[in-house]
Design brief:
It is built from eleven helices and nine strands. It has 314 residues and is an alpha/beta fold. A six-stranded mixed sheet has the order 3-2-1-4-6-5, sandwiched between helices. Strands 7-8-9 form a three-stranded antiparallel sheet, covered by helices on one side. The longest helix is centred in the C-terminal third of the chain and has 30 residues.
Length: 314
């Protein structure tokens, strides 16, 4: 085990404080926990989210505790119930609740970051989900190496590795892990992609995983440039945007700036239909008494004097 961490790309984190590892007790997160525990002995805490969505959940906790005991790693477990709001899928609700729970646990144990075991196969599945939904560049960028949510940095050091590589490596040292039965439940979009679409793509394009990873990187680079342009425009038109100055921009730059403003200030994403309606209302706003009121996500964008404002639900 002493050389285990040298096999894995963990340079994403300079651990001078505690490191949290999102630990489901499955193969991928087991590989991550073993690597982190070897790299930063005494600094790692495993964070397990008990969703309570299936009968095997208690078994997952038991295996997580057994693995942590063997590695000398502290385990923290939190139980959650992910209720989904109107228009939100159960999968999205569970994901949202999971990240919140992980962040809260990380803050409680004073971890400087949380590492996630998502890998190259997850990246490919995320890309296809975004493609099927007609996503723009942010969606086609798939998953980034790191992001901050709820005041906590989350890192994905294994995006360049396949799940088979992780499973083989864990099995090679005889470490037990759990098989999540939900991973084969084809009611879930991700599982249908894994079972039906990816084998067909592998037959036609054997190197498609690497090709999709390149496409995602290109999309991320292009999105970064659009973000820079949006910041330049927002510096000129204001935060919140001044309507008259916004009207001087071409529609494409208006949309780009507005999406950036909404994401950074309200953490919401407007649909294409909502953005088109908002642009139409902005274009028509030529008199002092003209109103702007358009639903975006769970709130509304409204006119407030010379500016736009986002109003969250009451």
């Amino acid at each position: 085990m002493a050389q285990w961490s040298q096999r894995w790309p963990l340079d994403l984190v300079d651990a001078r404080v505690r490191v949290g590892v999102a630990f489901s007790a499955g193969a991928d997160s087991t590989a991550l926990l073993m690597a982190a525990a070897s790299r930063w002995p005494g600094r790692v805490v495993a964070l397990h989210v008990h969703h309570g969505l299936q009968a095997a959940a208690d078994h997952f906790v038991a295996q997580a505790q057994s693995t942590c005991d063997g590695l000398g790693v502290e385990l923290k477990v939190v139980r959650i119930k992910a209720d989904h709001s109107k228009g939100e899928s159960p999968e999205d609700a569970a994901r949202r609740a999971r990240y919140l729970a992980l962040a809260e646990m990380a803050l409680e144990v004073k971890a400087g970051c949380v590492l996630l075991g998502q890998h190259a196969d997850d990246q490919v599945e995320t890309f296809f989900i975004a493609l099927g939904r007609g996503a723009g560049l942010p969606g086609l960028s798939a998953m980034g190496a790191g992001f901050t949510r709820h005041g906590v940095f989350f890192g994905r050091p294994f995006l360049g590795l396949s799940t088979q590589t992780l499973r083989d490596s864990v099995a090679s040292v005889g470490q037990a892990f759990v098989e999540d039965p939900s991973n084969t439940d084809q009611r879930f979009t991700r599982n249908r992609i894994r079972a039906r679409l990816l084998p067909a793509w592998a037959d036609t394009f054997p190197g498609f995983r690497e090709a999709i990873a390149r496409t995602a990187r290109h999309a991320a680079q292009a999105q970064s440039l659009l973000g820079d342009l949006a910041d330049i425009d927002l510096d000129a038109i204001g935060r919140p945007p001044r309507i008259a100055q916004l009207q001087t921009l071409p529609p494409e730059r208006q949309s780009n700036a507005l999406r950036r403003w909404l994401k950074n200030t309200a953490h919401v994403v407007a649909s294409d239909a909502q953005m088109q309606e908002l642009l139409s209302q902005i274009d028509a706003c030529r008199t002092r008494g003209h109103h702007i009121h358009i639903k975006v996500a769970h709130g509304h964008v409204e006119r407030e004097g010379a500016h736009l404002a986002f109003r969250p639900p009451l």
